[in-house]
Each structure stands twice: as structure tokens, then as C-alpha cells.
Amino acid sequence: MEFKKIITTFMVAAISVASSITASASDFPQTFEHRYGTTVVEKKPLRVVSLSYSGHDNLLAFGVKPVAVRYWYGDHPYSVWPWAQEALGDHQPVILKGELNIEQIASLAPDLIIGVTSGVTQEQYELLSAIAPTVMSEAKYTDYSTPWQLRATTAGRAVGESEKAAELVGSIEKQIADIVKTHPDWQGKTASVSFFYNGTPGGYRSIDTRPQLLKRLGFDTPKLLDAAADEGEFYANISPEDLTPLEADVVIWMATGDALAGLKEMPLRKKMQAHIEGREVLADNLLAGAFSFSNTLSLSYALEKLVPLIELAIDGDPLTIVPSTQKSGLLD
What domains are there in the chain, each with its CATH number? Predict the structure, then answer.
């Protein structure tokens, strides 16, 4: 089927149900300036395709059920992790895996495509924007560095749920403020969000959403880690022969399965001061996922689980056991 014919055929379906949805006229049109130009959303969308690897959670939090979502990783129904399953309900979105299939997306007859933190290229954007208004990351951000607050409020504006987005962001901001208030000693400390992937250790640089969250709690990314990759890169691979860039007041390891086994076998990890002084935190699969998704549904869970672990790790006393680290075998 020719590309234009796909668009024409399936857009008729979206138009036919438009009369069943009402929205405040004052919410639209909405204009978005982004890395590839300007997008105008003229009216409240009815069929939203989410290309962000984690952005569909925000839509679900707003009560918007996307017709398609982007698969990132994990083995959860419809690529929706436990913290968002209640919001998903019995909805069954199409799952977009691997390379984007433009004709598949066109066949879904979307009237809005959200591509913030999706890695969509200029060429792909041109094709997608011929199908429906397509909202991308602002030009000042890299592919995956848009702050979680802006991702939420951008999606909220695009679907006519700005108030709900602001409410959810405000709730998490209060949670963060309360943590900061009760942990003044964290200000100026350092934390590395570290990983072991395909046999290589590494860490996330300060432009990544995970260190951004820790920065809000008071923790800086180690300067050596930030300097270990080119500007614009959100992570840096580190030589297993020199783990110095990962040293910090708290080292948060994100490794499960084979990666965890490899991490435990890495000889120089046990020479790190963070290990010697008991300042390692192992984020299990669910915590690591919530931390990585960093959206309005995952962040409360991530903070609730992560903060108590940091509290135990940061005292520098190896006799203070961090349960997740012990359970993982990293203390053996």
C-alpha cells in the first residue's frame, strides 16, 4: 500500500470519532518550538502515538490512553511497568519495537505523535510530521536529556492536560523538597550512577535524567566521570583497570542478571573506597527501571525506594548494611 494512501485511509477513522470528544477551546492551538522546527497542535488529539521510550507513562497519568507506545526494555505487559499498570487498566496499545516503521505508525491514524526523548532523526521527523503533528525535544537538549518536568508539561500541553501535568509535577517536586529538607548533609556530596554493560563498566554523566534527579537531592556527578566522554553524551564507558571516575560519596550500581554477575567479578571494584567503606547501593531491576524512566508515575516509587538505601550507604561505615547491596552479593 502506498504511503499516501495509508495516511488518507486511516485518517478518516480519526475524523469519524472526533465529535465524541470535547475539550476546552482555550487549550488549543498549542505551539511547540523544537529541534526540527515548529509544530502546532490545533485541537485536542484523539489518537496519540508515543515514541518516547518512557513518555507513555505521563500520558497514562493524565488519563490519556495512547494508541501505540515505544518499547524500551523489560518484560512487562504492553511495555508498561508495574507503577503504571493501574493507569493502563485494560487498554491494549500497539507496541512499537526496534526501528520505527513509518507505515505502521501511519496505519494507526494518529492525530498527534510525541517524540520527545525518542532519538527520532530529522529524516524520520519529516515523514512523521506528514502523518500528524509531531512534537520533539527542544533544541537545547540532546536526544535523551530533556528534564522529566519538561517532558511531563510538554506532553500535558500537547494533549490538553496542562493542569493535570502541573499537579503531578508539583506533587513530585514537593516530595523532592521534603527529602532535601530532611537531608541537609547531602548538599555538596557526590554520587555516581554506574553500570556494567557488555563487560564494560561506566556511568551516567550529569546531563542524564538520573544524575539530574540526584542533583536535586544535593548530589553532584563526579567531575572525572563528566570528563570521561564528549559533550552531549549522556554516559561514559570506563576502563575496568581504572574505576576512579566512578568514585563518589555514594555509588549507585544499576546491574542485574549477567551484568550483575560480571560486576561482582570485576577485581578492582573491591579496591574502590566506596566498596571498602560500604557506600555502594545496588538498584534492583524495578528500582533501576523507575529511576531510568523518570516520569510522573515512576519517580515517586524510585524516591521511596532509593532514599532509604542512600541514607544507609552514605555514613561510610562498612558495618552499616545496605540491604539491596547485600542481597545482590556485592558485599561477598
Answer: 3-162 (3.40.50.1980), 183-328 (3.40.50.1980)
